Amino acid sequence: MFILHSQVLKSGAAALFAAALAVSTAFAQTAPTGIKLAMIEGLSGPTGNAGEAVYRNLAWAVERVNARGGVKPFGAAGGAQPLVLERFDSKGLNEEALSALRSAIDNGARFILQGNSSATAGVLIDAINKHNEREPGKRVIFLNYSAVDPALTNEKCSFWHFRFDAHADMRMAALMDVVKDDKALKSVYLIGQDYSFGKAVLGEAKRQLGLQRPDVQIAAEELHPMAKVKDFLPYAAKIKASGAQAVITGNWGNDLTLLIKAAKDAGYDGKFYTFYGNALGAPAAIGDAGVGKVVAVADWLPNVQTPASEAFYKSFRVRYPQSADDYVHMRMQLMVESLAQAIDGAGKQGASSVPADAMDLVAVGAQLERANVTFGGQSGAMRAADHQFQQPLVVGVMDRAGTPGVKFDVEGSGYGFRVVKSIAAAAAEQATTCKMQRP
After folding, report:
1. Alpha-carbon separation of residue 287 from 170, 250, 396, 403, 420 (angstroms)
2. Which residues, other chains included, contact 428 with Cβ-Cβ below 8 Å and sequence gap of 6+?
3. What is the rounded distance in angstroms from the CA atom of residue 376 to the CA atom of residue 368?
4. Cα separation of 199 and 192, whole Å?
5. Which residues, in sequence order, are CB contacts of 46 under 8 Å at separation 6+?
6. Ranges in the chain, pLDDT < 50
């Protein structure tokens, strides 16, 4: 029995793989099912590459927890159990995600993992709230690693939802720390995907530009269909014709890669201030034209210059040696570490109060509310008021690998991101309007 279902993983990190397999074999004799985690994500269609990239991160994190002995949801007397990661393909559609949610719960999943669409996250939160009220014996917790619409931890906040990525307003504030120092910048073009997240990014960009750089003009703002545009040249032509010196975008996946490729082909020479310009083909697409011009905000970048960060990144590349698989996010590791910590904590506190074959999800949620973890030199803590994870952020600018501060490139492209701004967790934190209702 191997604890990562539905896909045979590529070879690499032989020692870790062997250790995880050995632990899984031991688990198979005592706990044939384990604690099921269901990743609901677009694994096919235009966002499939992003979904598969997330899966690699989660698989690696689960392997690590299981290699050290798994979790103890019922205390020491209950024995250890593995985390079991299962995958469900939403095809990037909300209706498919809801169908996958039902299938995952019917299959015994206790934790739902999703992130690559704030719109999908919103419908999952609503569905999980209703399910947990209707069937308290089958409650589930939603762990969100990438859906960053601020509403999800404000007016839509839920006890059952925990977000481990900085939300869009936090990310925009970090980008604006760099924008405000770009004294040559006089005009920007705002472009984004036409759904809740894309709209939130453009709205916050306008608000923060007004506060930080009222002298900067907005040449134009535009929304385009998400994951449906095949040719971004018409958009790139408008950006170039506008005279804007920079583009601000929250685009991700192919919508970002194709936009950057089109801008390069159109001869656009401005900067790109992005949420996700540091991965999934974007650096290779723009090449030398992006040196010093593509800026990205993240919870962590491979060129964070600490020994623990470097060791973390190198270990990921051992596990996934192919350049095409070089998509690593610290927050997904911290999320799984937080979950393991919470399950163990709930097991220690409430083992005698629940049946031997049940797990108290309210107790696990209460533990997640105060999760505080450190891994790979990065620390983060969950804010109980709204279930928004608080962690440092960094802003990087694209440069050639081998230049000072760029020890590692991205996806074998020859280009990496040099950290130009570090924002402490306390400085990145923002107020919340959440009115949390607890069970």
Report:
1. 28, 20, 16, 15, 20
2. 166, 170, 173, 174, 390, 391, 392, 393
3. 20
4. 7
5. 92, 227, 228, 253, 254
6. 1-32, 351-357
Question: For residue 281, what pLDDT is reported?
Answer: 85
| Three-class secondary structure of residue 159 per DSSP | coil
- Give the residue from 112, 59, 60 showing the smallest Cα distance to 88: 112
Contacts of 203 (CB under 8 A, 6+ apart): none
Q: Structure tokens of 298? A: 């993240």
The crossing angle, in degrees rounded to 10, of helices 361-368 and 330-350 is 130
| 3-class SS of residue 415 | strand
C-alpha distances in Å from residue 162, one per residue of 20, 127, 212, 230 = 27, 15, 30, 34
Q: What six digits make up the tokens of 345?
A: 């904590």
pTM strictly above 0.85: yes
Please measure the distance between the N-terminal and C-terminal CA atoms of the chain and give it in whole angstroms. 36
In this structure, is the dihedral angle defined by the CA atoms of residues 384, 204, 417 and 233, taken in order, positive or negative?
positive
Q: What is the DSSP string of 134-151?
A: H-GGG--EEEESS---GG
The pLDDT of residue 33: 72
Look up residue 344 and give its two tokens: 């163990």
Question: Whole-angstrom Cα distance, residue 365 to residue 341?
Answer: 11
| Cα–Cα distance for residue pair 377/307, rounded to 1 Å | 8
pLDDT computed for residue 123 by the predictor: 98
Tokens linked to 123 = 């419908």
Q: How far apart are CA 326 and CA 317, in angstroms?
A: 7
- Burial string for 53-65 (b: 16+ CB within 10 Å, else e) reads bbbbbbbbbbbbb
Burial-class residue 370 by CB neighbours within 10 Å (0-12, 13-18, 19+).
middle
